[in-house]
Amino acid sequence: MSVAMSSARVRRTPSRVDDIAGLGRVGAGLFMAPALALIGVFLIFPALWTIYLGMTNYRLTGLAAADPDFVGLDNYTQVLGDSSFWWSLRLTLVFVVLSGILGQMMLGFSIAWALRHLKGLAKSLTETLVLAAWVVPGSVGSFLWLALLDRRGGTLNVLLDSPGTAWLINYPMASIIIFNIWVGTAFSMLLFSSALASVPPSQMEGAEMVGATAWQQLRDVVIPNIKGHILTNTLLITLWTFNTFTPYLLTAGGPNGQSEILAVYIYRTAIPGGQLGKGAAISLIMLLINLVIALGYIHLARGKKKRA
Amino acid sequence: MTQSTAVQPASPAPLKKSRAGPILASRTVKHFVTRVLFALAMGLVLVFFALPLTWLVTAPFDSNPTMAVRWPDWTFGNFQTLLESPYALGSIGVSLILGAGTIAVVLTLGSLASYALSRVHIRGRDGLLYALLLLSSVVTGTAAMVPTFQLITLIGLIDTHVGVVLVLAGGLLPTVIFILKDFMDSIPKSYEESARLYGASPSQILRHVVVPIARPGLAFVAVWTLVQVWGNFLVPFLLLRSPETKPAAVLMYTFYTESGQVDLRLISAFSLVFSVPVIVLYFLVNRRYGFRFHGGIKS
Amino acid sequence: MNRSKNIGVTMSAAALVVILAACGQGASDTPVESAAPSAPETVSMTANAITGGKNAAEADWFTDWVKPQFEAAMKADGRDVTVVFEPQGVDDENYKTKIALDLQSGGGADIIGMDGIWVGEFAQAGYIEPLSDVAGSVVDEWDGWPQISEAVQNALSFEGERYGVPQGADGRVLYYNKALFAQAGLPENWNPTSWADVLDASRALKAIDGVVPIQLNAGTAMGEATTMQGVLPLLVGTGVELWKDGKWLGGTKELGEVLGLYRTIYVDEMLGDPIMQQEAAGRDNSFAQFAAGKIGILLEGDYFWRSVINPAEGVGNAPMADRDTNVGYALIPAMKPGAGVNGQDFVSMSGGTGRVLNPNSKNPELAWELLAFMNSADAFRSRVAGTISITPREDVNAEVLKGDAMLTFVSEEILPITAYRPGLAAYPEVSLALQEATVAVVAGEPVDQVLESYSKAVADIVGAENVDNG
Q1: How far is A265 from chain C (nearest CA, A)?
Q2: Looking at this predicted complex, what is its ipTM?
Q3: pLDDT per residue over C285-317, tens digit each?
Q4: Taking Cα atoms as reference points, which of B179, B153, B169, B167 lies closest to residue B100?
Q5: Which residues in chain C have Cβ-Cβ distances shorter than 8 Å to B259?
Q6: Where does chain A have alpha helices with state H?
Q7: Based on CB atoms within 10 Å of each CB, which residue in A182, B122, B265, C344 is the most buried?
Q8: Please, what are the domains in chain A?
Q9: C328: helix, coil or strand?
């Protein structure tokens, strides 16, 4: 013990304030090794292989399966010149903004804000229901919404007394947007709930004492405190919503491609369409778009750090 | 919306005395209206989330369920039919095995890695993290399915649960590390400093100091992982062959009748049975830990 | 713990001794050829069927009849064979992907259930091989082949070689609701001889409130059902085939006629329900609607008769108690008499699934024995015992279809005049192009424009030099 203590005293003031646990580079490397190994084999390797596939005309069956040709960037030029790709991209962006950012985050935040002071039955009931929507498996959740929106016997038509309205056919984007909000709000709600709880109560009380309205409190006290959390949440929500495939179970890409978000577009190109090489190319394009989005957030986060 | 009592204006009261009566009245009315609107809004939110779920609790008990929610013709017959199906209950067991396995892998490797990333400044760690996060979106998509399948066949893990767990864990780890690192960043370092003073090694610090504080975050990650694994269809479908090894997510797709159409009785009963374990787990974890994203003592 | 472990070990040892003794016994009973006791063999099969789910009847037949019977037959021969069934029961696209991956990686079950239309692309990819290449010349000597007509064999053939054994045959007809016909003043024994006849009947049905006169599959939501129960039966009625002499059909005059009919039904005269064509469960809904008496005329396969509206207990999904008296069926007419392919007055389309042998199989001869066994007359008799369907064998059909007038009708009148889809790798994409053409027409686009887009789409798929634009 004394040896350890003396060595600790020697390193009393670590040269790097961040290396609290005394891991050092090697130690950190060891800690990260198993995770990196798993990721390396089961994530990076197939991902790189997929990127390579994107440059071939590989198909799962047919002549191109036996003997795929390396076509270089042909798939990419084809995809980027295909209007259905741009259409799908547009739909996906609309989907992400409306369902993810405006929908899940706003709703999640509002619920977290509203539940701040609530206790007891009301609070647990709300939290339970919101969480239940998120926790229920994707295939079950989508089936519940299929039942709700069914044209002939769905509960919504019964409630609104609008028999025969085909919600999924006439309003496909709205349907999947609202469905996705239903599914995903829980994550935002949890995150903001914790974030709000971490706002120093003293600041909140101070604001109330000087007569700030709720909106002003929000703007001047709460948001600056949880800015970091907002950014993290937005990034995750954006990426998840961008890549989600579950709406396929609801509309299968919508009547005539009207709700064909990118994940569905890739699926339909690769499986029913059989063009795996092209599907892989589109996946890479999607990855690059995600990268751009992520870089945007990093930029914002760094800006925040600089100002802090 | 705040529920606190009306903010007292700092301006001197006497000037307003003559108008105190009507102001108080209008304030109370405004208050009342606000509270009613608030209750209404919360009510709408509750209905929004509850409405689709009501089918899940009525249809399985209905002898002849329809798509609409209605008072059921009470019966347990659907569950009996489910029990007769040779694979139904076993598949839930398989889902539990896959879930538990993935959680174990992901929590162990994830906490080690995220702790190291959080505490040690390595150049480019942020970049690495984001890169991994982005790649995980490619691998969990459809296009990577052929490479994944070929890889698992090469390793010889086809038709094993281990293979499925490793693939799923590989796909989930980046997000888990991302969330956990964020979480660990906000744990105050004072505990670890004192532990270091007493000569604890890094792994001891991790096990005895950090993990107990980080439990809520780990619990959240565990539930999140289970939810992802529970509903995953593609990976186990492609990698597993024998019917006894198929998880519930795959089996759910097979509840169609001879003609390939949906049998609502089986689907509703199975959906309920399929959903219950995750909901129960969420409850247990919530009770024990509550879902919070930061640890340590609240400031 | 130790005690039960000891017991376990003893029991296993005892079991082992018993088995070895039995093997030894068996070996001594068999003729001189096999001197050593036969080693236990396994043969496996996979199909898109599962008990309690999709195609349950096939799954049950396999586990309840084929497995015990085959194992017993093998045992009588002194061979220890275990049959393993790997059920799937998911939707067709996912099933196809899975078997493709299995075959590609050198794995998969010994016998694989496959849709006939996939045979071409799987063969081109090198995943499957002709039956005789896999199991030897014993395949060609099978006594079942003479019972299966060449047209039906072709469903599982590619470039003249047999890759698998078909497990059924089917045909498409025009179903109609006799009660609605009576209400509209149409004859009970309806026999349309041209498209004009069908349109006239539809117009008469339009007068009835709340009834959709005719359901002709359209749109991409119904997938292959649009092509098989919509476009192709009409197309062969105009005298052309989708693929002939190496060329695919382009934007020809005949396809224009087909699309024109769609336009008449869905746009000009509103004789159909355009919204149902877009619903994800549109086809299922059309079944339910017909069963409920809300659709007058429906173009569907015999599968509709025996598996959907079948009133027998637990068989039909949308059973009609009055099916035998109230549901009529007629041959699909060509555009005009004599305008059909081969100069026919009436046309139809057939598909079919079957089973192929896995070239990666460790024991192809045994696999072929099981395959031949599954397709013997006895096997088919037991297969259709619960739910009658048309078998590929003429000898069995003559017996089992006696009780069902409709299926006899299909077997005797439709199979001789039916056509098949081209089993080539590009077919699924061309089929999709046809579906998208119907989408455009139903949405109101002018037929000429749709023909142009379709032509271009097909050229993109197969190369412009392989398209015949008439």
Answers
A1: 14
A2: 0.82
A3: 899 899 999 999 999 999 899 888 888 776 677
A4: B169
A5: 287, 303, 307-308, 316-317
A6: 2-10, 24-39, 45-53, 63-66, 74-80, 83-95, 106-114, 120-135, 138-149, 155-160, 167-170, 172-197, 201-209, 214-217, 223-243, 247-251, 262-270, 276-307
A7: A182
A8: 74-307 (1.10.3720.10)
A9: strand
